[in-house]
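=== RUN LOG ===
request id: a7f3
mode: sequence -> structure
chains: 1
length: 415
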Amino acid sequence: MTARQDMISLLKNRKVGFSLPQPFYNDPEFFKLDMENIWYKDWLFAGHDIEINEPGQWFTMQVGAYPLIIIRGRDGEIRALHNSCRHRGSIICKTEHGSSKRLVCPYHQWSYDTDGSLLRARHAAADFDKSGYGLKQAHCETVGGYIFVCVAQNAPDFAPFRAQALPYLAPHKLGGDVKIATQNTIVENGNWKLVWENNRECYHCAANHPELCRTFPEAPTVTGVTGAMDDPVIKAHWDKCEAAGLPSTFVINPTGQFRHTRAPLIEGVESYTMSGKTAVARPLCDDVTTPQIGTMLMFHYPTTWNHVLGDHAISFRVLPIDATHTAVTTKWLVHKDAQEGVDYHLDELTAVWNATNDQDRRVVEDNQFGINSPAYEPGPYLEPDEGGVAQFVEWYTNAMGRSLNGDRATLSRVA
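=== RESULT ===
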């Protein structure tokens, strides 16, 4: 039986509301199917457009086997270019960030314009047709300051996500009035799905996240995907924020792939700090000054979850490395005119999530270690605490089922 046949069989026979069978978390062949059927077909969060404000600025990212250059062209457009020279395939941009008037391959100095077109092939014949050797492009879209890319030949329709995301993002002006205060990347020794499963619940928070629990509520109506409409605290918070012009009501795409909502923090808390007070004296956006607006929560599977507060925003990007290693990049965004050491201090700004990220790394690695045991078998997700985890796994199994079956009907499963 091939890995594909094995996966289809396990998906058909898995119990709804239970964790996945072991191969989904550690088998290299199953990981390859994940990459081919999700990561190489879907829209992926790359970064923020304010990272490449000027023409010629770029950053790189690695999507499985695909190295990419995300660059702003001289025409102001943001593009995703495959980081592979059209001469003999060498990588072109080797650092994480850079700025260039043109992209020059370090191997034989073929040079490309910022739109990917080939400018010069050194020593090429006079009649060499450069037009056929520009850098290949991946699909690229932006919304509210967020850049998404897709390496598939035919990308899914981006319009549904743009329509849902823009009203929630627009008030914060993340596309022009902010800057990256700091960022870091950690590698978690766990499968990418375990990283997401851990993110989608706070059932583990009390025992593992003392810093986060000073500000973020453990309520499953906040982390999950059900019950928020019936939670009077959340409903009152929505009413307050909506009155201030901030879209807040919970909304999730019918596929389950992306969600937006605004959630209250613990009563009296302004931001993710050890004191609960704001981390940045200058508001993230000059137009959003209502106190205690909580956090705008956005996720888009499989690459990003986000928190947008009144004083700063935090984005998280998930990129798989192999079956049991995942890179998680965190970026803290503040107002573009906020001054470090005056309006904010990095230690205070990052303390809660640096601690939480490291704690999450540990619990994911512990989870992976236990799943690798021959004794492991799928266990039940507990409602309502792990409802968000069950929802993520349903999205994953449905997406894989459709792709493995040529986008036909979702695989039926054992109830």
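=== NOTES ===
The two ends are 25 Å apart (CA to CA).
Residues 44-150 form a domain with the Rieske Iron-sulfur Protein fold (CATH 2.102.10.10).
=== END ===
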